[in-house]
Design goal:
Blueprint (H helix, E strand, L loop, with lengths): L1 E3 L18 E8 L6 E8 L7 E3 L20 E8 L5 E2 L1 H4 L9 E5 L17 E2 L1 H9 L4 E4 L13 H7 L4 E4 L9 E9 L7 E9 L1
Parallel strand pairs: 5-7, 6-8, 7-9, 9-10
Antiparallel strand pairs: 1-12, 2-3, 4-10, 4-12, 5-11, 11-12
Helix pairs in contact: 2-3
């Protein structure tokens, strides 16, 4: 089974308030022999659009950029942990789980139900800094969550980002895990190969 947990990119999709809006503009020109049209799409969007990766450089001066990470961080075994009916995910939500051998974790929350909303969902579930610290202590290399930030909406200090990114733990934001049962999978998460980037949109699939 293959699960595509990537949010489709469209002009109508929600973006983080203040980020560049998505603009996909169709353009075309007539072929030189005038027998058909050639279509291309002009693309304008931010590096943190939809399903995307955060690299340390996103918030840390001198932090590692996206292209500084080997692909083996982004491909391999991953565990989807479902945490229903929580306003935020803290250490107490994670302590009862067996973390032996877990290097990549994707947090499935109530957020995944809100991708079909007609507007940005401000009350999204986020990862508390103590939850992030718990994952760092267990050697997790990649953490994903199912909305556009792993920190609380309008966070002033971005504490969860700092806990993870200062330890070079990669972050995937904007996953849609609505159709994915809790369990173990293989993840393939391939961001655009942008150089010296703070982050990039990614295509993310899970297989089992």
């Amino acid at each position: 089974m293959i699960y595509d947990v990537t949010v489709p990119i469209s002009n109508a999709m929600p973006v983080w308030p203040g980020d560049p809006p998505v603009q996909l503009i169709r353009k075309s020109h007539l072929s030189q022999d005038k027998t058909h049209s050639v279509r291309v799409t002009a693309i304008e969007m931010g590096s943190h659009t939809g399903t995307h990766m955060d690299a340390p450089f996103h918030i840390i001066d001198g932090g590692r950029c996206l292209n500084d990470f080997a692909l083996d961080t982004l491909i391999g075994k991953a565990t989807v942990v479902e945490i229903p009916s929580a306003r935020s995910v803290g250490r107490s939500h994670l302590e009862g789980i067996d973390w032996v051998g877990v290097e990549r974790v994707l947090l499935k929350t109530e957020n995944s139900k809100h991708w079909n909303d007609d507007k940005f969902y401000e009350e999204f579930v986020y990862l508390e800094p103590d939850g992030a610290q718990f994952l760092v202590e267990r050697g997790v290399r990649l953490v994903g969550i199912d909305y556009l930030s792993i920190d609380k909406f309008q966070s002033e200090s971005h504490s969860t980002h700092f806990v993870l990114l200062t330890k070079n733990v990669m972050i995937i934001e904007g996953l849609n895990l609505n159709a994915v049962p809790q369990g173990n999978y293989t993840i393939i998460a391939l961001p655009l190969n942008l150089q010296e980037a703070d982050g990039a949109p990614a295509r993310v699939v899970l297989t089992n």
